[in-house]
Amino acid sequence: MGSPVDARAENAWLRSYPFWDAYFAIVLIATIITIVVDGGAPAAVILLLLITVSYALWGRQAVRAPVAPTKEGWWHAAAMIVLFTAADLLAPQSAVALSALIPMTFMALRRARAVAVTVAMFTGPAIQLMADNGSHPLLIAVAIVLGLSASTLLGVFIDRLGRQNTERARLIAELDRTREELAEVSKEAGMLAERERLAGDIHDTLAQGFASIVMLLQAAGDGHDPYVRRAMETARENLSETRALIAALAPPALEGASLEEALGRLAKGFELPVEVSVAGAADVPALVAEALVRAAQEGLANVRKHARARSVRLALEHVPGPAVRMSIADDGRGFDPSAGGDGYGLRAMRNRVTRLGGTVRITGFPGQGTTLAVELPCSG
């Protein structure tokens, strides 16, 4: 047995198709038995079996098609009209098959077309039956109208049931997508809250501790002692690393600021000279702006950790589409991106950008610097 989610998402109308196949087979067998028992023409049995062949070739596909009508539906409808009319002329008992053929017609064709096909199949048997019984023409007409009305009502009910089930399946699919999106948003919100908490904890513990160590070593006053000097350098380096980690974990600096202003703040607070350039202008959705600021934080953090660069260039470009591109290029030692996998920060960046329909590219060569390029769509 599948999971409850799979069972809920499965289209109940699709699960009913094997029962329709079985119903058609039962009605066909009953019709053939009726013809044989009443001494009907054997050719009528052959014609009914040909309807079965038509159903196997075209009818099953037409009934199961998500959108009606299809060319298979028209082929099957034409075959039913011709074969059934001929069978009924040879053996009036063939009219029993209408109890399966009419519902099938409404499942394979749209309502108005199905009514027309039903009239074509129903009128002949009704006229023949009433004429054989010597009925008055008015009674024949009334019987035909009543029979067609009942058949049409049944067909309309089947058609409406199918449409309602299709709409239900569509709403369930939309509900599942919405739940997945909400779960993703909730997960992202939880991750951001946890990152902010970690940033606060690191600031209150490690950063404060390293700052205190630097102050205590400076108060010692023995700057000529190599061990003291090395301890001060190590403490300052770790304090710098800790502050960079806090900046990467903290929420993007977008409160009350545009994307350009937020990137300018990051550049101004960076340890190396960062040249910032902006081309074009466009409205950037909040989620896209946040993703770009996060990408800039990660890119600058990688430059500081690995590049050994002297300067950095951050470029933001608004392009038609609309879309926005951001690149961070350094003049550091570079590396071959194909030689190794991404770290955790780059993987998180790729996941965030990909969820928004964007792309991340990293290019570089040993000794020639590295460029991180991010492109995101600005439309819904």
TrEMBL record:
EC number(s) stated in the UniProt entry for this protein: 2.7.13.3
This protein's UniProt keywords: 4Fe-4S, Coiled coil, Cytoplasm, Iron, Iron-sulfur, Kinase, Membrane, Metal-binding, Transferase, Transmembrane, Transmembrane helix, Two-component regulatory system
PROSITE patterns (UniProt xref): HIS_KIN (PS50109)
Cofactor(s) recorded in Swiss-Prot or TrEMBL: [4Fe-4S] cluster
Subcellular location: Cytoplasm
Record InterPro entries: HATPase_C_sf (IPR036890), HATPase_dom (IPR003594), His_kinase_dom (IPR005467), Sensor_HK_TwoCompSys (IPR050482), Sig_transdc_His_kin-like_C (IPR004358), Sig_transdc_His_kin_sub3_dim/P (IPR011712), Sig_transdc_His_kinase_ChrS (IPR017205)
Coiled coil region boundaries: 161-195
Function: Member of the two-component regulatory system NreB/NreC involved in the control of dissimilatory nitrate/nitrite reduction in response to oxygen. NreB functions as a direct oxygen sensor histidine kinase which is autophosphorylated, in the absence of oxygen, probably at the conserved histidine residue, and transfers its phosphate group probably to a conserved aspartate residue of NreC. NreB/NreC activates the expression of the nitrate (narGHJI) and nitrite (nir) reductase operons, as well as the putative nitrate transporter gene narT.
Protein name in the entry: Oxygen sensor histidine kinase NreB
Lineage: Bacteria, Bacillati, Actinomycetota, Actinomycetes, Streptosporangiales
